[in-house]
Amino acid sequence: MAEPEDRDLPTRERILAAAERLFARRGFSGTSIRDITDAVGIKPPALYNHFPNKEDLYAEVLAASLRPLIELIDAAADAADGAPNIEGADQIVGRGMDLLREHPHGPALLMLEGITGADHLARIARDWIRPLIERGVSVLKENDASGRWSEDVYPNVIWMWFCSAFGHVALSALYAEVFDEDGLADSPFARHRDFMAAVATASFEPKR
Amino acid sequence: MAEPEDRDLPTRERILAAAERLFARRGFSGTSIRDITDAVGIKPPALYNHFPNKEDLYAEVLAASLRPLIELIDAAADAADGAPNIEGADQIVGRGMDLLREHPHGPALLMLEGITGADHLARIARDWIRPLIERGVSVLKENDASGRWSEDVYPNVIWMWFCSAFGHVALSALYAEVFDEDGLADSPFARHRDFMAAVATASFEPKR
Amino acid sequence: MAEPEDRDLPTRERILAAAERLFARRGFSGTSIRDITDAVGIKPPALYNHFPNKEDLYAEVLAASLRPLIELIDAAADAADGAPNIEGADQIVGRGMDLLREHPHGPALLMLEGITGADHLARIARDWIRPLIERGVSVLKENDASGRWSEDVYPNVIWMWFCSAFGHVALSALYAEVFDEDGLADSPFARHRDFMAAVATASFEPKR
Amino acid sequence: MAEPEDRDLPTRERILAAAERLFARRGFSGTSIRDITDAVGIKPPALYNHFPNKEDLYAEVLAASLRPLIELIDAAADAADGAPNIEGADQIVGRGMDLLREHPHGPALLMLEGITGADHLARIARDWIRPLIERGVSVLKENDASGRWSEDVYPNVIWMWFCSAFGHVALSALYAEVFDEDGLADSPFARHRDFMAAVATASFEPKR
DNA sequence: GATGAATGAGGATTCATTCAT
DNA sequence: AATGAATGAATCCTCATTCAT
After folding, report:
1. Quick check: is D33 in a domain?
2. Are residues B197 and B150 in the same domain?
3. Residues D39, D126 within the same domain
4. Are C163 and D159 inside 8 Å of each other by CB?
5. Measured between CB atoms, which of C27, C156, C175 is closest to D30?
């Protein structure tokens, strides 16, 4: 708990790191300023030299936590853009999950926001999720040669993968309790990622 | 907001209903006793005539919210138990989602618990999720004739469907912001349910 | 300080009494909730069972403190309405001051507000002071036969008396330090009141 | 608001000017160090290079704000010392008010202190107000030939004029709300000053 | 002189809970 | 079964002040 949260970094960064971890684990109202400052090793008033209030700190954590995810997913989609049909699907899914795994707080924060539908939801949806979906849909339009799906379910395709992938990462605590192993550890994670990639393959296998 | 939460029901039931809705929307620490009693139309001390404290009320809400889900999913699985191969998969998925839709607070509560990994998580995992997974795995063992999957990914199959289905229902607020329509309304919901059922079908289509 | 503030009265009244005294002596921002609740003999949270917040408590104190002043002055003006010329002026002044003396917190609160020009000033001016001035002006119009003053200085007449009378009562702490006697005690107060009444008489003495 | 408070002056003077204005408008406890430094355009710690703490800054503001008033009033009294009877009264009153008008924060600060009776009151009373009163009384003794007043009400005379004159200037915010015009603007101020001078004349008009 | 970072003390207010009625 | 009044603990945040730079 009181891990000094990377003692070398400037205080502002340490606050962001501690806040990200705590907000992701306990939600906004479940995390107190004191929780965060205790984790950083400062007193509560010191936090206000770096952030004007809890809300703004949270907004910054949210943005900082989602930005790399979207950027990386975007880059992965770029890479897969010209790729041939079926192989593309499983590779995108696999890469996407690997990226989520490296930034597991983002999915948790996003799903907490998505469920509780708090104040930031509209902005998140507009700025992060909608572009992500649109990006995915356009990739599908160019690459799906399976003949299985009409264009108007492409958003559902992306949405389902979004729920599955973000859900797996965000729900790692539940996964651990259910399966007695850390869902983000190498082997279980690989198994799940590969399974999801295989479902993707099956989904875009040309219809007989 | 201040809907008197079914004026005819006994107070205890009205508290449970209001608490379920609020806990699902704002989480445990984001919901105050006053929020609940305001929704019911009583004063905070009156709540303590029916529940010993907030924690126990929450535990009861959680159980009451998850029990029907598990029971109904269980029943759906029973019905599909003897069903033939491929048709079974999409029917189970479709029925399961219809059931979730009727009790949308359950998925939200479960995912909030699953993310924040709070005190109830171990019990929930043991009592509700593990049996659900095991039930699904055994159904798969009896019915999967696709030749696509080895038995040790069956848990991943169920887990992925769990994330997708519970995620879609729990994240309806996010869905609404992203797609400008209520993901639980008839037509969008049917589209997503049918798409997921189709993916199930594709996943269990016998391999060529 | 910790006088129990009239132990018999209901808590709400005791809070109002303590708050009036403290706000009048130390101003709004110089008075803490704890100051008030200490004077009443309760803990700070108990105050919130009776008033929603400090601002509203202050507003209520202000209204409760000014209302009797205005009402009584109004009544005094009524009584003097039909009175003959000169005698009226000194009697109104004398009676008005006697009334202020009985409610000395009102002038203090009003002058603090009037100086700091805080949020309530506009409302106070409109609801309390303007009617008071207008009332005084109309009395002057009917009764001033001195031939000394044009009608357009009547507001200045009232304003000057307002400053003098409210000032004397509000500034009793300063008066005490300057003159080494309590300006609200019987004898010094009577001397000042009678002097002011005499000035009023001189001011409305028919011009030679 | 964020007027840089006379950019050319040395920081110390700019702090004094900003502090005077803010203390006069919001009182001691209603003004924070940050309010002052914001108005000056520096950060709070910089203030401590010029003043040891808030209390001492306030004391200096108070002295600096009252000193010119007293000096100027004193000078005005000197000038009127040899002046003949009746004309003197109105001239002193008129000149005194003109002086107050040029330093309107002094009256506000003084009345706030006089009402709240804070720590500085005794010193202020002794050092500033008492000499002022005594000076006025001695002028009256030498000049009052009206035969209207016994010598023991002379202090009341001065006190009443003090309340009226300081009150009018300090309460300019209230005046503005009540009369819809700035009480310190040329025309309204002149009207009030002349009225007060006229009352002075009437008060010292030889009795018939 | 000025500032960024820090802090102890205290600010108003909320919260879960109790208890007498 | 319900409530008004009360409270200890905790909430977010502000404040005056310090100190190293």
Report:
1. yes
2. yes
3. no
4. no
5. C27
User: In CATH, what number is assigned to the domain containing residue C16?
Assistant: 1.10.10.60
Distance CA C48 to C1' E18 in A = 17
Q: Per residue in A82-97, pLDDT tens?
A: 655 445 677 788 888 8
Other CB atoms within 10 Å distance of the CB of residue D186: 9
Q: How confident is the model over C183-206, as pLDDT tens digits?
A: 999 999 999 999 999 998 888 888
Size of chain D in residues: 208
Q: Which two tokens stand for residue B72?
A: 């109904």
Q: How far is C151 from chain D (nearest CA, A)?
A: 12
Give yes or no: residues C86 and C124 share one domain: yes
Handedness of CA B32, B34, B35, B37 (dihedral sign): positive
Same domain, A41 and A69: no
Chain E nucleotides near the protein (CB, 7 A): 1-20
Q: What is the DSSP string of D26-72?
A: H-STT--HHHHHHHHTS-HHHHTTT-S-HHHHHHHHHHHHHHHHHHH
CATH number for B180: 1.10.357
Which chain C positions have a beta carbon within 8 Å of D162's beta carbon? 167
The SS3 of residue C119 is coil
Identify which of B141-155, C28-42, D122-136 has the greatest average pLDDT: C28-42
Please calculate the CA angle C11-C16-C21 and round it to the nearest 5 degrees: 125
Contact D160 C196 (CB under 8 A): yes
Q: Are residues A43 and A70 located together in one domain of the fold?
A: no
| pTM for the structure as a whole | 0.91
Residue A107: CB atoms within 10 Å? 26
Specify if D198 maps to a domain: yes
Nearest to D202 by CA among B125, C203, C126: C203
Contact across the interface for A30 and B29, Cβ inside 8 Å = yes
Among left, alpha and beta (phi > 0; psi -120 to 50; other), residue C5 is left
Alpha-carbon span D148 to D146, nearest angstrom: 5
Tokens of B207: 């391999």
| Radius of gyration of the CA atoms of chain C, in A | 19
Residue of A25, A180, A111 lying closest to B130 (CA atoms): A180
Domain that holds residue A25: 11-47
For residues D140 and D85, the answer to whether their CB atoms sit within 8 Å is no
